[in-house]
């Protein structure tokens, strides 16, 4: 049985990593997926891969840090498909270092790419979902928003903000048929966004702070996202679910 049959989902940051994994899985489970990203080449490859598996998707070029462009993304989706069932605010870029060493422009960069764009996605999805009387919003947070991790200052602040935003939306919009949750991924070495991810010593060190002694995979996050966006989680809202190999339990 397809767990997202006939659903329409926007996934931001969907050209690679966790967003790509979720796009492939959601399409496999019956959803039409709007693959939203600013990387045209990689985004179109994701759509082609979905089509090869007989799924339904299209690419939408967007810079999610621009509010008007996020508004247009939601408007386009609703005009074409008549509804928006799922808004997965996954995109994000980060600059990480201890706060005392952090240039203000790097703070602004992180808040813009990790918190502001989630607010934009939530805002315009909520306006449509309130009209519909239903919908699911899923936000990408991080274990950095739940526990202290050395050197993660701006990332911790932005992701704690995402978790607070998620809970607020759940409280305000639950009575209107809208659920909102967050996933807090642990360390997943799938990208070169930061120097840490190319450092073998750091990667191996992370295994020592996890009860489950393997690296996380993007598919681990996608499976949790699928559950939280499906009807199987219909009584879950306002939660930040850590998918981290048990790191936050240590």
UniProtKB/TrEMBL annotation:
Keywords associated with the record: Oxidoreductase
GO biological process, one term: bile acid metabolic process
One Pfam assignment: adh_short_C2
Entry GO MF terms: oxidoreductase activity
ATP-binding listed as a keyword: no
Signal peptide: none
Top-rank lineage group of the source organism: Bacteria
NCBIfam families with a match to the protein in the record: PRK07231.1 (NF005559)
Family: Belongs to the short-chain dehydrogenases/reductases (SDR) family.
Protein name, UniProt field: SDR family oxidoreductase
